[in-house]
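Please check what follows.
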Amino acid sequence: MIRPIVFFSLLAGAALADPATQYRDLCASCHADSRLGGSGPALIPETIGKMKPEALADVIAKGRPMTQMPGFADRLSPADVAALASFVAAPLASPPKWEATDITASRKMNADYQPATAPVFAADPMNITLVVETGDHHVSVLDGDTFEVLDRFATPYAVHGGPKFSQDGRFVYIMSRDGWVQKYDIWSLHEVGRVRAGINSRNIAMSRDGDYLAVANYLPPSLTILNADLTVAKVIPVTGADGTPSRVAAVYQAPDRNSFVLALKDLPEIWEITTDPNGGPFPEGFVHDYAADEALTTQKGLFARRRIAVSAPLDDFFFDPGYHNLIGANRGADTGVTVNLDVGREIATLPLPGMPHLGSGISWMRDGHRVMAVPHLNEGMISVIDMESWKLITTIKTSGPGFFLRSHDATPYLWADVFTGPHKGEMHIIDKQTLQVVKVLTPEPGKTVAHTEFTKDGKYALVSIWEMDGAVIVYDAKTLKEIKRLPMKKPSGKYNVWNKITFEDGTSH
């Protein structure tokens, strides 16, 4: 008997159906004739390359739970499944493209949407918390005072990166791995629409004025800038000064600079793109290198690009509160660097071994100095760094590698999870002044417990049991006592409106 994971093996004497025909008949309606995706994700090596052959064949045969992906074991033999898996894993004849016309054609606005003149609920709209439930691809909208679920709406498949809010807190934008950007009106509790900004995307960032949304794309290697109404403002191919293309690892809003800052996966460059028509924060006399692009804009300076050379590609960033300095890490190195964005060069090297996760770092004031803390994905430790001298203050030992740090101005504690290893599920409560672990919570032994978010006032801390039959646990942030549990389907992240739009010290930006 042949296992379906052996792609190119055939049953003796069996007649295989043409996999291209099978793809057209069974898959194209969701994944498109081009294999670049539609309502389903793209089926090309660039997006499924990390899936093991047996896993890909298993999805074709059995489907994917909690999605619209059906199984085809009743219509395909094991050999046909293997052949179809080989077909979708093969490279396309030419590099996939996703251009402004494709993005525009994908835009789907909700005809039933009616904007409200005021919130349709009595809860404080600034204390709303969104819970991303990746288990069945939904978001729950929580009242941050009563923890009542005000709405629960479907999202695109495989939401990735944190949602981003308009500056007034009314609208939220949510992005999926396959490039779909969804706009939701919190006041109306209703989806506004969605558009596909890329084929394989990493995260999104909102401009300070709320006019533009930037989408970082792995495929094609580009930055898509959308207007707030999900129309295309600009698609910027990402290539180095020597013409080498690069995936965009992440894009960040730098509100004090009226710009987007890009982490490039494959180039030793940082890009800064201004959303200021007057040229933004660039040094005096700087001439952007879009000058020859007549189609760029009718407003001088808008989306101007600045390249900053760095010693190695940096794909994970942290910023100081004024966005003067960027702290970056190269996942393959044991150090990080501080890049001063005002002068456009590296100014310090930081000892950050163990794969630091700068994207979830936080900062606060300690002994008159601003410090930052960052977890390490490969080691049970948290590095604490003085943000004036750029020297390591100490490392806090934990019982295993962590993924997220969170705090709030109103609490003396830092909450640090343990994401992997035999102690996964432990939550370390750390005093922000003494840097000592004061308590370890184990709310659900043996299960992954991660990602803390606070309510607007910092009174409550919300923690996820990161499992299919999981929950959001509400803790009193002062007494550290559990208040209640809200059943959820793998609640991977929680995002409080006020904390996000005010860039609260204790949350990642």
Summary: Residues 1-14, 287-300 have pLDDT under 50 and may be disordered. The longest strand covers residues 212-219. The domain at 355-509 is CATH 2.130.10.10 (Methylamine Dehydrogenase; Chain H). Residues 61 and 75 are 9 Å apart (CA to CA).
